[in-house]
Design a protein that fits this description.
mainly alpha; 78 residues
Length: 78
């Protein structure tokens, strides 16, 4: 059997393995979140995602502020 034939015949099996892995890690993530919630703790993932969102908000705010300032400086008042 050639590689292409083997690859197409096992495609469903490969997807099944990926689905099982996805389900396993998703269940672990949800269980971890539930344990953290019960203990009143914040997970490292939550802290990292919050920090990333704050950094993104600051970057967007700085960009908008710079554009508004540049536009205001080009207005002829006299």
């Amino acid at each position: 059997m050639s590689y292409s034939q083997h690859n197409t015949t096992n495609k469903g099996a490969d997807m099944s393995v990926w689905k099982q892995m996805w389900d396993y890690y998703n269940i672990q993530r949800l269980a971890s979140r539930e344990r953290d919630t019960e203990r009143g703790e914040v997970s490292a993932t939550t802290v990292i995602m919050t920090a990333a969102l704050i950094a993104l908000a600051i970057a967007v705010g700085a960009t908008i502020s710079g554009r508004v300032r540049d536009k205001a400086n080009t207005i002829n008042l006299g």
